[in-house]
Amino acid sequence: MCPICIEPQNLTGYSELLLLGLSDDPEMQPLLFALFLSMYLVIILGNLLIILAVVSDSHLHTPMYFFLCNLSLADISFSTTTVPKMLVNLHTSSKSITYAGCLTQVTFFYLFGGLDCLLLAVMAYDRLMAICQPLHYLVIMNPRTCCLLVLLSFFFCLLDSQLHYLTVSQLSFCADVEIPHFFCDPSQLLNLACSDTSTNNILIYFDGIIFGGMPLLGILFSYYKIVSSILRVPSSGSKYKAFSTCGSHLSVVCLFYGTGLGVYLSSAVSSSLRKNAVASVMYTVVTPMLNPFIYSLRNRDIKSALWRMI
Known about the structure:
The protein is mainly α. The protein contains ten helices and five strands. It has helices at residues 28-56, 63-92, 99-132, 137-140, 143-169, 186-192, 198-231, 236-269, 273-298, 300-309; strands at 9-10, 16-19, 96-98, 172-173, 178-179. The protein is globular, with a radius of gyration of 21 Å.
Protein backbone atom coordinates (compact mmCIF):
# COMPACT_ATOMS: atom_id res chain seq x y z
CA MET A 1 0.00 0.00 0.00
CA CYS A 2 1.46 3.35 -1.00
CA PRO A 3 1.88 5.73 1.93
CA ILE A 4 1.42 8.70 -0.40
CA CYS A 5 -1.05 8.49 -3.22
CA ILE A 6 1.05 9.60 -6.12
CA GLU A 7 1.52 8.02 -9.51
CA PRO A 8 4.09 5.25 -9.01
CA GLN A 9 7.38 5.66 -10.85
CA ASN A 10 9.85 3.04 -11.96
CA LEU A 11 13.25 3.38 -10.28
CA THR A 12 14.66 4.59 -13.59
CA GLY A 13 12.51 7.70 -13.14
CA TYR A 14 14.68 8.85 -10.24
CA SER A 15 17.95 10.59 -11.00
CA GLU A 16 18.89 10.50 -7.31
CA LEU A 17 17.99 8.56 -4.18
CA LEU A 18 18.76 9.48 -0.57
CA LEU A 19 20.86 7.40 1.82
CA LEU A 20 20.00 8.50 5.35
CA GLY A 21 23.21 6.98 6.74
CA LEU A 22 24.04 6.03 10.32
CA SER A 23 23.35 9.36 12.04
CA ASP A 24 21.65 12.71 11.39
CA ASP A 25 23.81 14.52 13.93
CA PRO A 26 26.13 16.95 12.03
CA GLU A 27 28.70 16.79 14.84
CA MET A 28 28.96 13.02 14.39
CA GLN A 29 29.81 13.21 10.67
CA PRO A 30 33.56 14.02 11.03
CA LEU A 31 33.95 11.33 13.69
CA LEU A 32 32.17 8.72 11.56
CA PHE A 33 34.22 9.76 8.53
CA ALA A 34 37.53 9.32 10.42
CA LEU A 35 36.39 6.01 11.90
CA PHE A 36 35.24 4.42 8.66
CA LEU A 37 38.15 5.80 6.65
CA SER A 38 40.53 4.16 9.13
CA MET A 39 38.64 0.87 9.00
CA TYR A 40 38.50 0.91 5.20
CA LEU A 41 42.26 1.54 4.96
CA VAL A 42 42.88 -1.37 7.33
CA ILE A 43 40.69 -3.59 5.13
CA ILE A 44 42.59 -2.65 1.97
CA LEU A 45 46.08 -2.79 3.45
CA GLY A 46 45.48 -5.93 5.53
CA ASN A 47 44.01 -7.97 2.69
CA LEU A 48 46.60 -6.69 0.20
CA LEU A 49 49.37 -7.77 2.57
CA ILE A 50 47.87 -11.27 2.71
CA ILE A 51 47.77 -11.41 -1.10
CA LEU A 52 51.32 -10.09 -1.48
CA ALA A 53 52.63 -12.51 1.14
CA VAL A 54 51.08 -15.50 -0.65
CA VAL A 55 52.20 -14.38 -4.11
CA SER A 56 55.77 -13.59 -3.05
CA ASP A 57 56.43 -16.74 -1.00
CA SER A 58 56.73 -19.97 -2.98
CA HIS A 59 56.05 -22.01 0.18
CA LEU A 60 52.52 -20.59 0.18
CA HIS A 61 51.71 -21.62 -3.39
CA THR A 62 49.23 -24.24 -2.20
CA PRO A 63 45.46 -24.64 -2.67
CA MET A 64 44.65 -23.33 0.82
CA TYR A 65 46.48 -20.04 0.27
CA PHE A 66 45.20 -19.73 -3.29
CA PHE A 67 41.66 -19.73 -1.89
CA LEU A 68 42.73 -17.34 0.86
CA CYS A 69 43.96 -14.86 -1.79
CA ASN A 70 40.61 -15.01 -3.52
CA LEU A 71 38.80 -14.53 -0.21
CA SER A 72 40.91 -11.43 0.46
CA LEU A 73 40.06 -10.05 -2.99
CA ALA A 74 36.36 -10.72 -2.35
CA ASP A 75 36.58 -8.95 1.03
CA ILE A 76 38.22 -5.89 -0.52
CA SER A 77 35.60 -5.79 -3.26
CA PHE A 78 32.69 -6.33 -0.85
CA SER A 79 33.72 -3.40 1.34
CA THR A 80 34.51 -1.22 -1.67
CA THR A 81 30.93 -1.72 -2.84
CA THR A 82 29.54 0.29 0.09
CA VAL A 83 32.20 2.12 2.13
CA PRO A 84 33.64 4.66 -0.40
CA LYS A 85 30.20 6.09 -1.17
CA MET A 86 29.45 6.36 2.54
CA LEU A 87 32.76 8.20 3.05
CA VAL A 88 31.96 10.64 0.23
CA ASN A 89 28.53 11.37 1.69
CA LEU A 90 29.96 11.87 5.18
CA HIS A 91 32.70 14.17 3.89
CA THR A 92 30.40 16.30 1.73
CA SER A 93 27.40 16.15 4.12
CA SER A 94 25.41 14.82 1.18
CA LYS A 95 22.95 11.93 1.29
CA SER A 96 22.39 11.40 -2.40
CA ILE A 97 23.25 8.46 -4.60
CA THR A 98 22.48 8.18 -8.30
CA TYR A 99 20.09 5.60 -9.67
CA ALA A 100 22.97 3.90 -11.52
CA GLY A 101 25.07 3.97 -8.36
CA CYS A 102 22.30 2.34 -6.34
CA LEU A 103 21.85 -0.48 -8.86
CA THR A 104 25.62 -0.95 -8.96
CA GLN A 105 25.72 -1.33 -5.18
CA VAL A 106 22.89 -3.88 -5.23
CA THR A 107 24.63 -5.88 -7.98
CA PHE A 108 28.07 -6.00 -6.37
CA PHE A 109 26.60 -6.53 -2.88
CA TYR A 110 25.12 -9.84 -4.02
CA LEU A 111 28.11 -10.72 -6.19
CA PHE A 112 30.82 -10.40 -3.55
CA GLY A 113 28.63 -11.28 -0.55
CA GLY A 114 27.69 -14.56 -2.21
CA LEU A 115 31.28 -15.13 -3.30
CA ASP A 116 32.43 -14.86 0.32
CA CYS A 117 29.96 -17.59 1.32
CA LEU A 118 30.97 -19.96 -1.48
CA LEU A 119 34.70 -19.42 -0.99
CA LEU A 120 34.41 -20.24 2.71
CA ALA A 121 32.67 -23.49 1.74
CA VAL A 122 35.37 -24.27 -0.85
CA MET A 123 38.06 -23.64 1.77
CA ALA A 124 36.30 -26.07 4.14
CA TYR A 125 36.31 -28.70 1.38
CA ASP A 126 40.02 -28.03 0.84
CA ARG A 127 40.72 -28.67 4.56
CA LEU A 128 38.59 -31.83 4.38
CA MET A 129 40.69 -33.21 1.54
CA ALA A 130 43.97 -32.18 3.20
CA ILE A 131 43.16 -33.96 6.48
CA CYS A 132 41.04 -36.91 5.36
CA GLN A 133 42.84 -37.65 2.05
CA PRO A 134 46.44 -36.49 2.69
CA LEU A 135 48.05 -38.89 0.23
CA HIS A 136 45.76 -37.86 -2.63
CA TYR A 137 45.37 -34.21 -1.61
CA LEU A 138 47.57 -32.62 -4.28
CA VAL A 139 46.05 -34.88 -6.93
CA ILE A 140 42.47 -33.99 -5.97
CA MET A 141 43.15 -30.30 -5.35
CA ASN A 142 45.30 -29.73 -8.43
CA PRO A 143 45.64 -26.19 -9.91
CA ARG A 144 43.00 -26.87 -12.53
CA THR A 145 40.44 -27.99 -9.93
CA CYS A 146 41.21 -25.01 -7.68
CA CYS A 147 40.75 -22.51 -10.52
CA LEU A 148 37.55 -24.27 -11.61
CA LEU A 149 36.08 -24.07 -8.10
CA VAL A 150 36.79 -20.34 -7.89
CA LEU A 151 35.49 -19.64 -11.40
CA LEU A 152 32.29 -21.62 -10.80
CA SER A 153 31.72 -19.75 -7.53
CA PHE A 154 32.20 -16.43 -9.29
CA PHE A 155 29.94 -17.45 -12.20
CA PHE A 156 27.03 -18.50 -9.96
CA CYS A 157 27.33 -15.31 -7.90
CA LEU A 158 27.51 -13.19 -11.07
CA LEU A 159 24.36 -14.85 -12.40
CA ASP A 160 22.59 -14.28 -9.09
CA SER A 161 23.64 -10.62 -8.96
CA GLN A 162 22.29 -10.03 -12.46
CA LEU A 163 18.93 -11.52 -11.47
CA HIS A 164 18.77 -9.09 -8.54
CA TYR A 165 19.77 -6.23 -10.83
CA LEU A 166 16.89 -7.02 -13.19
CA THR A 167 14.26 -7.42 -10.46
CA VAL A 168 15.30 -4.32 -8.46
CA SER A 169 15.38 -2.16 -11.60
CA GLN A 170 11.69 -2.97 -12.15
CA LEU A 171 10.54 -1.69 -8.75
CA SER A 172 8.18 1.28 -8.62
CA PHE A 173 7.94 3.88 -5.84
CA CYS A 174 5.19 6.30 -4.83
CA ALA A 175 7.28 9.00 -3.19
CA ASP A 176 10.85 10.20 -2.81
CA VAL A 177 13.13 7.27 -2.09
CA GLU A 178 14.80 7.76 1.30
CA ILE A 179 16.74 4.65 2.28
CA PRO A 180 17.39 4.36 6.06
CA HIS A 181 20.81 2.86 5.49
CA PHE A 182 24.35 3.81 4.49
CA PHE A 183 24.09 1.84 1.22
CA CYS A 184 21.35 0.64 -1.11
CA ASP A 185 20.27 -2.30 0.99
CA PRO A 186 17.98 -4.43 -1.22
CA SER A 187 15.65 -5.29 1.68
CA GLN A 188 15.10 -1.60 2.41
CA LEU A 189 14.34 -0.91 -1.26
CA LEU A 190 11.68 -3.63 -1.14
CA ASN A 191 10.12 -2.06 1.95
CA LEU A 192 9.87 1.28 0.16
CA ALA A 193 8.48 -0.11 -3.10
CA CYS A 194 4.82 0.30 -4.08
CA SER A 195 4.92 -2.35 -6.79
CA ASP A 196 4.57 -6.10 -6.27
CA THR A 197 7.73 -7.43 -4.60
CA SER A 198 6.79 -11.12 -4.45
CA THR A 199 9.38 -12.05 -7.09
CA ASN A 200 12.08 -10.16 -5.21
CA ASN A 201 11.13 -11.82 -1.92
CA ILE A 202 11.24 -15.27 -3.52
CA LEU A 203 14.66 -14.47 -4.95
CA ILE A 204 15.92 -13.32 -1.54
CA TYR A 205 14.70 -16.53 0.13
CA PHE A 206 16.25 -18.53 -2.69
CA ASP A 207 19.50 -16.62 -2.10
CA GLY A 208 19.42 -17.38 1.59
CA ILE A 209 19.14 -21.10 0.89
CA ILE A 210 21.59 -21.38 -2.02
CA PHE A 211 24.27 -18.89 -0.98
CA GLY A 212 23.80 -18.97 2.79
CA GLY A 213 22.31 -22.25 3.97
CA MET A 214 23.90 -24.70 1.54
CA PRO A 215 27.49 -23.41 1.96
CA LEU A 216 27.00 -23.47 5.75
CA LEU A 217 25.74 -27.07 5.60
CA GLY A 218 28.77 -27.94 3.45
CA ILE A 219 31.10 -26.34 5.99
CA LEU A 220 29.42 -28.13 8.93
CA PHE A 221 29.58 -31.48 7.11
CA SER A 222 33.26 -30.92 6.23
CA TYR A 223 34.16 -30.16 9.83
CA TYR A 224 32.13 -33.11 11.08
CA LYS A 225 34.23 -35.39 8.86
CA ILE A 226 37.43 -33.55 9.83
CA VAL A 227 36.77 -33.88 13.57
CA SER A 228 35.81 -37.55 13.18
CA SER A 229 39.05 -38.20 11.29
CA ILE A 230 41.24 -36.29 13.75
CA LEU A 231 39.77 -38.06 16.80
CA ARG A 232 40.93 -41.39 15.35
CA VAL A 233 44.54 -40.17 15.31
CA PRO A 234 46.37 -41.65 18.37
CA SER A 235 49.06 -38.96 18.69
CA SER A 236 48.05 -35.76 20.54
CA GLY A 237 50.73 -33.83 18.63
CA SER A 238 49.27 -34.90 15.29
CA LYS A 239 45.80 -33.96 16.50
CA TYR A 240 46.96 -30.48 17.46
CA LYS A 241 48.75 -30.01 14.13
CA ALA A 242 45.64 -31.06 12.19
CA PHE A 243 43.35 -28.80 14.23
CA SER A 244 45.76 -25.86 13.89
CA THR A 245 45.48 -25.93 10.09
CA CYS A 246 41.71 -25.37 10.45
CA GLY A 247 41.75 -22.81 13.25
CA SER A 248 41.99 -19.67 11.13
CA HIS A 249 39.33 -20.77 8.66
CA LEU A 250 36.96 -21.85 11.43
CA SER A 251 37.41 -18.49 13.17
CA VAL A 252 36.58 -16.61 9.96
CA VAL A 253 33.51 -18.81 9.35
CA CYS A 254 32.23 -18.15 12.90
CA LEU A 255 32.84 -14.42 12.50
CA PHE A 256 31.18 -14.21 9.07
CA TYR A 257 28.09 -16.29 9.84
CA GLY A 258 27.90 -15.05 13.43
CA THR A 259 27.71 -11.39 12.39
CA GLY A 260 25.27 -12.23 9.59
CA LEU A 261 23.01 -14.10 12.00
CA GLY A 262 23.33 -11.29 14.54
CA VAL A 263 22.22 -8.71 11.99
CA TYR A 264 19.28 -10.90 10.95
CA LEU A 265 18.15 -11.41 14.56
CA SER A 266 18.57 -7.73 15.43
CA SER A 267 16.43 -6.73 12.43
CA ALA A 268 13.77 -9.24 13.48
CA VAL A 269 13.70 -8.02 17.09
CA SER A 270 14.30 -4.28 16.63
CA SER A 271 11.85 -2.05 14.76
CA SER A 272 14.47 0.70 14.39
CA LEU A 273 15.71 0.78 10.80
CA ARG A 274 18.66 3.00 11.81
CA LYS A 275 19.79 0.43 14.39
CA ASN A 276 19.63 -2.25 11.72
CA ALA A 277 21.90 -0.14 9.54
CA VAL A 278 24.41 0.15 12.40
CA ALA A 279 24.28 -3.63 12.88
CA SER A 280 25.02 -4.11 9.16
CA VAL A 281 28.41 -2.46 9.71
CA MET A 282 29.49 -5.74 11.33
CA TYR A 283 29.42 -7.85 8.17
CA THR A 284 30.14 -5.12 5.61
CA VAL A 285 33.12 -3.53 7.39
CA VAL A 286 34.19 -5.26 10.62
CA THR A 287 34.40 -8.83 9.28
CA PRO A 288 36.55 -7.97 6.20
CA MET A 289 38.76 -5.88 8.49
CA LEU A 290 39.34 -8.68 11.02
CA ASN A 291 39.95 -11.52 8.53
CA PRO A 292 43.58 -10.54 7.77
CA PHE A 293 44.34 -10.30 11.50
CA ILE A 294 42.87 -13.75 12.12
CA TYR A 295 44.96 -15.34 9.36
CA SER A 296 48.15 -13.46 10.20
CA LEU A 297 47.97 -14.00 13.97
CA ARG A 298 46.82 -17.64 13.94
CA ASN A 299 48.80 -18.87 10.93
CA ARG A 300 52.53 -19.37 11.34
CA ASP A 301 53.22 -19.58 7.59
CA ILE A 302 51.52 -16.24 6.90
CA LYS A 303 53.34 -14.60 9.81
CA SER A 304 56.68 -15.88 8.52
CA ALA A 305 55.94 -14.67 4.98
CA LEU A 306 54.92 -11.24 6.25
CA TRP A 307 58.12 -10.93 8.33
CA ARG A 308 60.22 -11.86 5.30
CA MET A 309 58.45 -9.16 3.28
CA ILE A 310 59.18 -6.56 5.95
